[in-house]
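Board notes (copied after class):
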Amino acid sequence: MRHFKQAKTAVAVAVFLSCSHAAQADMAAAEDFLSNEVGGLSVLSADEQKAEMQWFIDAAKPFAGMDIKVVSETITTHEYESKVLAPAFSAITGINVTHDLIGEGDVVEKLQTQMQSGENIYDAYINDSDLIGTHWRYQQARNLTDWMAGEGADVTLPTLDIDDFIGTEFTTGPDGKLYQLPDQQFANLYWFRYDWFSDDQNKADFKEKYGYDLGVPVNWSAYEDIAEFFTGREIDGEKVYGHMDYGKKDPSLGWRFTDAWLSMAGNGDKGEPNGLPVDEWGIRVNENSQPVGSCVARGGDTNGPAAVYSITKYIEWLNKYAPPEAAGMVFGEAGPVPAQGAIAQQMFWYTAFTADMVKDGIPVVNDDGSPKWRMAPSPHGAYWEEGQKLGYQDAGSWTLMKSTPVDRAKAAWLYAQFVVSKTVDLKKAHTGLTFIRESTIQDESFTERASKLGGLIEFYRSPARVRWSPTGTNVPDYPKLAQLWWQNIGDASSGAKTPQEAMDALCAAQEKVLARLERAGVQGDIGPVLNDEQDPEYWFSQPGAPKAKLDNEKPAPETVDYDELVKSWSK
């Protein structure tokens, strides 16, 4: 018995020493990470950073040695997480993270498969907040409000500071619960060649031809004039174009429109972050947030005059003012074109491209590293009114599915919080230029870098940013409905259908899905319940959307001086 007790004591001492060594190794890994990777680029003090790392070390102990898998789409921010932050987290906590990078459509497909099968494919997803209406209605994602207060309380970072996140309005359901935690955000803005717009000869020629000043277009009328002015003009010995877009019938064409193109035209109702009762997809909901229609006959606006006008202008500008090859391009092919130096402006430009547009040596960057271009708020169409959203903001957000076992969800939640923590976020934002925290946006390091980022910082610090938002809660099943857009609008882009015919087909297809969901009853008393059809004139006579066709869809053009615009924000 004495020998047994001595053996037990020896084992206990060995285990204690091993654990002590592991704890030291964890903090050593954390200190190495803070020193060599974060490098002081954090909104927290050195002591506060160490305190956060110590919390992760302690909270992760029950899950040490566990292998977890998470997934996101492939953009610069997520590449940084996968290649740098995941290995660092694993070294610090002992939780082995595989952070897969796949296409955006593939992320949605994997998520949809997990929802339908109940199989735990991934332990956490970074999926767009465009699915907020899906998650709220199907109730297959853990609502994080209850999770953080209950089952996940012991693994919720005390310094997470939800109020510091700028996008939680996008990831909150009508029930007031938070369903997703933003990981990265970027807006869809107007991009233009500041150097060409500032050129005295260009300004004089434009003023002589159109009778007003060349500047940032406030409305689509001015955008169209500017596109016409630059297309075919020779600058520095090269023919340039006044517009850039893409038009191939491909899934990426769907993003081009669900990412709020219709709202820019003036489709839908007023409201932030999305129009109510009619959103930018043209889907109307009732007072209980139940979708009741997409076509004008049911009070929707997917095929209304504003929507048809938006598609008409898209096709017209693509054919008249963009490079001839643009009509046959997909999103990935068209994205790099403005950086090649022959595009004057682009209405539909994601700020996620910023990092690629400020690289040394490319045609749109000066020798001193400053950009020749700027970004600004998007111009609005003829149907737009003050109070409507003006564009799209992507908010890739952490989502925990209920089909994920609790222990695995907890381990994944720790990793999710690590990559959005105040310790990490400032450095991550400098790497990917996708902002999720107010403290990061306001940091002095971005004040110093702002002149090299073409207006990105000024926009995110401005009051204008609230008009940019993701798809909202009116969309009850994003995966099912989103795929309908590229197929139907692709018919208009190719010339197979008129814009009106294409949007009529789209709204009818959306209503078929809504009707199936209604019959199935899978979303309970917050699922669709379609209105009876009525004469469209009934709805046109009601306040708000859908609006009747305007007699004049090209009102007086309006521009604003970019530098004066930025000054007005700072005031």
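Comment from the instructor: Residues 1-24 have pLDDT under 50 and may be disordered. Residues 2-38 form the longest helix (37 residues).
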